[in-house]
Amino acid sequence: MTMRSVGAVTIKRSTEIERMGAAGAILVDILDVLRAEIRPGVSTGDLDQIAAGMMADAGAEPSFLGYGSNPPFPGVICASINDEVVHGIPSPRRRLADADVVSIDIGCIVDGWHADCARTWTVGRVPREAQDLVDTTRRGMEAGIEAARAGNRLGDVGHAIETVAHERGYGIVRPFVGHGIGRAMHEDPQVPNYGRAGTGLAIEAGMCFAIEPMFTLGADDVYVADDGWTVQTVDGSLAAHFENTIAVTQDGPRLLTERA
């Protein structure tokens, strides 16, 4: 049977969504273990090794390792600390410290189907403003997911996320956005974390998205570091990042990277 498409956006069948859900369940297990390891003195390289071992044991392939060509990404996870927004390279030399904010982004492949998710955690005791940023970024993701319903439009998703950020005066990282997902980690359409309600692609059941807001305590502007991957805030402000892979169903969005 040929996969149905809406323009360049593929509509997944229930069996394909189940495979993505299997990949998502592996990521949830890995993130549970990584969260328990988050403490001062642990290196992001340590976290990467744990994730790599668990993924191999589960029979999954990492989505990130070797991705791209500028240079190819060298880790199984992305580990971004404080003013690093996304795509931080894990390293045994990069150790977590008290009051850090760390974002872990991870993806894997099961039977040719991807899942992708991210969480931001705090290390030890952090200022109230840092915890508020983390909590609000998660709420932004949840608002975007709630808007990802059949009959709505992609602009509704971005508008819902943007509204949460603007309520607190946070910056929204605009060059890096959510995306379709399935056979490839990054598929059409792009899913911006900002937008005008009632505009954009009409959402249909069977579409699968990775919804991933990135908020900052300062301005929106970011740059890519000399390593070719790590995205940082220009003003040095803290950043947070949450992501879930979802499938749109007739009954609403189904989370593929959260426990039921």
What does this structure look like?
The chain has 4 helices and 17 strands. The strands form 5 sheets. The chain has a 5-stranded antiparallel beta sheet with strand order 10-9-11-16-17, sandwiched between helices. Strands 3, 4, 6 and 7 form a 4-stranded antiparallel beta sheet that branches. A hairpin with a 2-residue loop joins strand 16 and strand 17. Helix 1 (14-37) runs antiparallel to helix 2 and helix 3 runs antiparallel to helix 4 (154-168). The model has no long low-confidence stretch (mean pLDDT 96). Helices cover 28% and strands 28% of the residues. With 260 residues, the chain is of the alpha+beta class. The protein has helices at 14-37, 44-57, 128-147, 154-168; strands spanning 4-6, 9-11, 61-62, 77-81, 84-86, 101-110, 113-122, 171-172, 178-180, 187-191, 208-211, 214-216, 222-224, 231-233, 239-241, 244-249, 252-255. The radius of gyration is 17 Å and the shape is globular.
Task: Characterize this entry briefly.
By secondary structure, the protein is α+β, with helices and mostly antiparallel strands. It has helices at 14-37, 44-57, 128-147, 154-168; strands spanning 4-6, 9-11, 61-62, 77-81, 84-86, 101-110, 113-122, 171-172, 178-180, 187-191, 208-211, 214-216, 222-224, 231-233, 239-241, 244-249, 252-255.
SS elements, strand count: 17
Mean pLDDT: 96
The parts where pLDDT drops under 50 for at least 5 residues are none
End-to-end Cα distance:
30 Å
Largest sheet: 5 strands, antiparallel
Q: How many whole angstroms does the radius of gyration measure?
A: 17 Å
Strand arrangement, largest sheet? 10-9-11-16-17
Proportion in helices: 25-40%
